[in-house]
Amino acid sequence: MVIVMKTTAKREDMDNIERLLERLDLGAHISEGSERTIIGVIGDKRLLDGVPLELMAGVDKIVHIVEPYKLASRAFDPNPSTIKIGDETIGADKLTLIAGPCAVEDRDQILEVAEYLKNCGVGFIRGGAYKPRTSPYSFQGLEEEGFKLLAEARERTGLLVVSEVISTEFLDEAARYVDIIQIGARNMQNFQLLREVGRVKKPVILKRGLSSTVEEWLNAAEYIINEGNYDVILCERGIRTFETYTRNTLDLSAVPLVKEISHLPIIVDPSHGTGKANLVTSMSRAAIAAGADGLMVEVHPNPKAALSDGPQSLDFPKFSSLLDEVKKIAKVLDRSI
Ligand code: PEP
Ligand code: MN
């Protein structure tokens, strides 16, 4: 439920409502727009049965959110969310670039990528320390050592670190080293993991499940937000279809759709979305043109030797030209990188 205030509402009107909600053990999410303030009510709405909220000073109307997800919905917060991490902002006019290898393989590799990205002006480095691999015989990641190497890369370059957590067991460990926790496609509906990242005070990138609908994806975001962590960034990474010439079918229509129905920022991963390095630049351009708030791209110093996802990874020259292309589109859209 959201309480829409009148354009003439005063500060004390909002304070009164906040106090009332507090007395009833309900939370309030205040969203101050340029015209009016909207108060999202958090908690069991039945506690408000019989309370004449509509009659309170400053209240224009009460809107009941019909979607199954509430806190993630645009109705709950009509202003697009922005997420602040260090000096970086995700969402609004800013385009966020996250790049790096699929997996952290060794110290030289990750530091080389970090130095390169720093020189490109990219703000975030990605790299898997725990890898959810289809085959148990494939490289599974360096585990905690991988997180340590990413933290070292941050110390040297100032880049912020994104890395995946595949189980609740490693969540405290990850929180010590990473700036953004990634929940991978395979874990999008690992509800216990979602609840627990909701209690961690770190932003979360929530990738879309391999076969998930947009509604399931937003419900997954709801699990995280419902625990108190509003800093959720959605990541479209392709879904499984009958097509086999690409690894996944990158659903770019999800970008403007999600923007319409949710206030959460959304980025696109064209690497997993296509599985093919030669398609990554085109789909990056298209993603930004479609309104995405950023990109997550796999970059490796030597893709042919990569221990995972080499065929979809860009080498440094290819990533540099992707950046040039994306900057052209960003300029047309008045978005900064
Ligand atoms: C990854 O980012 O390396 C990854 C495993 O992605 P996804 O969860 O989208 O498959
Ligand atoms: Mn990968």
Task: Give a summary of the structure in a few sentences.
With 337 residues, this protein is of the alpha/beta class. 33% of the residues lie in helices and 18% in strands.
The count of β-strands is: 14
Task: Profile the largest sheet.
Answer: 8 strands, parallel
CATH superfamily of the largest domain: Aldolase class I
Number of individual domains: 2
How would you describe this structure to a colleague?
The radius of gyration is 21 Å and the shape is elongated. With 337 residues, it is an alpha/beta fold. The protein has two domains: 2-63, Phospho-2-dehydro-3-deoxyheptonate aldolase, domain 1 (Alpha-Beta Plaits), CATH 3.30.70; 83-332, TIM Barrel. The longest helix has 17 residues, at 316-332. Helices cover 33% and strands 18% of the residues. The structure holds phosphoenolpyruvate (PEP) and manganese (II) ion. Phosphoenolpyruvate (PEP) is lined by residues 102, 128, 132, 184-186, 207, 237, 272. The site of manganese (II) ion has 5 residues, from loops.
